[in-house]
Amino acid sequence: MSLRWRLGLIGAAYVLVTLIGGLATLSAAQRWSEALDDRRAWLVASEQAARLRASYVDQETGQRGYVITGRDDFLEPYERGQAEAAPLVVALEQIEGNDAHPLPISGVEQAVDDWRAEAVREIDAVRGGNPQLADALVSAGTAKVRFDIVRDRLDQLDAAIDARLDAIARNVDAGRVATARAFVITVSLSLVVSAVGAYLIRRWLMVPLSSITAAVRRIRLGEAASLTPTGPPELRQVATAVDDMQRTIGQQRDDAIRAREAIEQSAILAVQVRSELTSDLGDYPEGWTMAAGLRPAEGVVAGDCYDVALLSPTTIGIVVLDIAGHGAQSAVAALKCKELLKAAIRSGLEPGGAVSWLSEQEHGLGELFLTAFVAVVDTSSGRGTYANAGHPHALLSHGGQLERLGPTGPIVGPFTTTWDSGSMVVEPGAKLIIYTDGLIEARDAGRTFYGEPRLIDLLVALDCPDAQPVVDRILSDLDDFHPGRLADDVTIVVACRASDSDGVSEPTLSLGKEATDAVSPAPTTRIDDDVHAQQPVP
Question: What is the pTM of this model?
């Protein structure tokens, strides 16, 4: 028997054991899953039964209160309880009809009908102005006796549900044990077949290959080696292949040198691409400072990018992008989208229109998705418009207050939709912070997120005479929280507007009527520094 056939038999044995064991494990796991589904359904039934009991108790309490006091407001729980009980009864009846173990829900309904007939008599007596009849009916205690029967039937219903849950719990345990047993047996048999196969392979291959190994070592040292093909046909082919390798190894060495040179050239290109992903912030109108920071998760290029530029002597355009993923491919896509958005806002499109136009143009991205924050700010008045395409909320901080500029549309992807433009006002002394989700989703050693609350606490405590210290402080705090390599790219852009020099108290940040009219489906919210509670901006 040739070596190929022997190895084929070993592989067939391994596949057979794995297949049979896998099917057994899958079957046991399926039964386990079905038992878990049953348990979930019956837990829902238990909760529905509890709500049904509460609705009947509310009805009885309201009816009794009405009969005693004659006040109509006591009938509200009675009538509301009837409305709440109806869908619960229907749901429990469906469970009863779909299960082999019926619930005594029909007995509950009959007892309720009997009690309600007596309760209606008492209610009608009060409504009809016949207190003597009402007192007589109450004194007779028929309604109370019948409601006690309702309670007994509800107890029977709960007992039936509990019994079914106990049986299902046993099925769940049995399914778990069967799944674990099948898995352990499958793994054990696979290990046995692997051990036997390893022994046979060593016996059939190791000895004949020893001479070939010695020849390969000589070739690796640059020495000539003479190979005489011996052993099974497969090994003779290996010996021939090694001899061919000896003749081509010089060519491979040349290829390796060329590959190394190509890597060096690629590194230079990566640095150039990274420089394009960021922008030279430059100088801005008096009273305004801009700063930014970008940290890639791997290599030197990121899937994030930003651009801040003057669109006119008094207008600043801001673009921040986060492409799904990181690395060279994401960096090139981010660069392309950034340039398109820059061109759109330079041509006069509102931020929302710029993102919509990008969505119409960028079907060439394939399955890639991105989030974006685009803003245009008038430096004279501080008023601006923005679009948030599924991006984390930008933060507009002033004094002890902070506003969150939420999404005005979904993320950008391989589909076409539209985005709205929201309005904002950057008052004197305020700072605008735009960041990507890599910042707030960074985790420490305990797997705790950095989170937006930590960022908000940091920002509210920082003054903003200049933007660069704000960026440096955020990145320093991130380093303290998550030292080492990041799991996702992090980008931060900060715009600071200096306070008025005349000493007049600065107005608090707010969205004016224009913002109220223009803000998109995700409203801007304001967070007060002393309570950290998000409230809609009036």
Answer: 0.46
